[in-house]
Amino acid sequence: MAPLSPGECAIATSSSPPKAGTVPAVELTGITKRFPGVVANHDIHLVVHRGTVHALCGENGAGKSTLMKILYGMQKPDEGTISVDGQQVTFGSPGDAIDRGIGMVHQHFMLADNLTVLENVVLGSEKLHGIGARARAKIVELSERYGLGVRPDALVEDLGVADRQRVEILKVLYRGATTLILDEPTAVLVPQEVDALFDNLRELKAEGLSVIFISHKLGEVLSVADEITVIRRGTTVGTVVPAETTTKQLAELMVGSELPTPETAESTVTDRPVIEVDQLRLLGEGGRALLDDISFTIHAGEVLGLAGVEGNGQTELIDALIGLKHADSGTLRLAGESMADWQTRKRREHGIGYIPEDRHRHGLLLEAPLWENRILGHVTEKPNSKGFWLDLKAAQADTRRIVEEYDVRTPGIDVDAASLSGGNQQKLIVGREMSHAPRFLIAAHPTRGVDVGAQAQIWDQIREARREGLAVLLISADLDELIGLSDTLRVIYRGKLVADADPATITPEELGSAMTGAASGHLEAPEAPGGTEEPADPGTAEAPADHTDESAAPEDEAR
């Protein structure tokens, strides 16, 4: 089957769809959803067959999450019908969808860290199997049947990201889901964890369950999906079979351009230090070291990539650099000046840009309009201020510029940030931070949740600023992004820098192994202060730092 051209909007039907039966598990027909000033979905058609993984792809703001919220009963369509196992249904709430076997695992996990796996799973569903022995037996049965490896008595705060995701999958299976919606499930996983997740999905398929897989990672989509439906600007563009398409063709269907690569062609690293971190140590409760003897220097024109499984000290390092936490020992210098007594505002005014890892908690005021979000963290800087006063007209004009330059899909700058898709929220933040020509940029997962077109634009912005002398600390779960953009790579494990890697020779698989504590032939022990090398032993490192809070609200994909 020849792939559709970017301009076509008809549905492409595979010559041999991988359906397991004649009646689809889910069928959405003519779904249309309007919001004030925006048509989020227009005449959407989607057919998901029983016992298959069906991928849903599209740009930020294409309407994917709106469509899934309609299927999950969180929103009602203005037009169109929903059928489950051949029967037309109407959902007034997620409870209605759950009763018909629809379950959703959001990108941001909905787990209580202070509860056990069992307590999280049964919470709100106590009537199904009680809260004791029967519930435990059911959890063990489901875990073994689908190869999830979940321990009912484990405390969630002690689990890694991949294990937390399995708990979320178990939650929906426990409630009887036969069709699972997974929203960006690989966004925070290393390659080995992605492979394990895909093994879990194959187990689900083998048992006759269906999975709707939402992702911007087109290579993963092609490897795990049986069918792929592409949505662009709220309309179905086509449905294709992985064996008959490529990442390049999928990107063209999504955004009308080729899939970008994050390769950095030339080095722009200078010998001028911008940020210097020396023997930084940060203690948590009980005197446990969250960061232990962290030392590095980032020069003008250099991107230092920091690789690590989430929860190994990245969040604490960011907090120490931006001034949200103060280290117990060690020094921080920006352009030769000590930041020991600087609060966050002064650090920002002296040229530290900050793209936070959690845009909802640290990057935006969701109930505030876009122009107010544009001035966050930069209230005292031009064009937002004039002397002691805010310059609202200038700030609003600059917000319009950011919206245009960064292709933020919005009906206007007066809408609340909550009304934007997650990817468009991210583009607004990146535009805001890059607009003040920072000397040092903390970029934590800068392209998480954005489509391939926006991803390319953000990479280009980082490259251009790097050429002009920007120093960047890049933290990302996208290992191709880390390897492609970084001049230097360091690995953080249990609060320590345990290895250095050469981006020119390291592979994502080797980097992923190092992140989990395994050795690699392309990694070296970090150089200790004073120039002597000390071998790092990840196996003897202290207990891991606190895990990143994954309890934020799920993102909207389109309004």
Automatic annotation (TrEMBL):
<dbReference type="Pfam" id="PF00005">
    <property type="entry name" value="ABC_tran"/>
</dbReference>
<feature type="compositionally biased region" description="Basic and acidic residues">
    <location>
        <begin position="544"/>
        <end position="559"/>
    </location>
</feature>
<keyword id="KW-1278">Translocase</keyword>
<dbReference type="InterPro" id="IPR017871">
    <property type="entry name" value="ABC_transporter-like_CS"/>
</dbReference>
<keyword id="KW-0472">Membrane</keyword>
<dbReference type="InterPro" id="IPR003439">
    <property type="entry name" value="ABC_transporter-like_ATP-bd"/>
</dbReference>
<dbReference type="InterPro" id="IPR027417">
    <property type="entry name" value="P-loop_NTPase"/>
</dbReference>
<dbReference type="GO" id="GO:0005886">
    <property type="term" value="C:plasma membrane"/>
</dbReference>
<protein>
    <submittedName>
        <fullName>ATP-binding cassette domain-containing protein</fullName>
    </submittedName>
</protein>
<feature type="region of interest" description="Disordered">
    <location>
        <begin position="1"/>
        <end position="20"/>
    </location>
</feature>
<dbReference type="InterPro" id="IPR003593">
    <property type="entry name" value="AAA+_ATPase"/>
</dbReference>
<keyword id="KW-0067">ATP-binding</keyword>
<keyword id="KW-0677">Repeat</keyword>
<dbReference type="GO" id="GO:0005524">
    <property type="term" value="F:ATP binding"/>
</dbReference>
<dbReference type="InterPro" id="IPR050107">
    <property type="entry name" value="ABC_carbohydrate_import_ATPase"/>
</dbReference>
<feature type="domain" description="ABC transporter">
    <location>
        <begin position="26"/>
        <end position="258"/>
    </location>
</feature>
<feature type="region of interest" description="Disordered">
    <location>
        <begin position="513"/>
        <end position="559"/>
    </location>
</feature>
<feature type="compositionally biased region" description="Low complexity">
    <location>
        <begin position="526"/>
        <end position="540"/>
    </location>
</feature>
<keyword id="KW-0813">Transport</keyword>
<keyword id="KW-1003">Cell membrane</keyword>
<dbReference type="GO" id="GO:0016887">
    <property type="term" value="F:ATP hydrolysis activity"/>
</dbReference>
<keyword id="KW-0547">Nucleotide-binding</keyword>
<feature type="domain" description="ABC transporter">
    <location>
        <begin position="275"/>
        <end position="519"/>
    </location>
</feature>
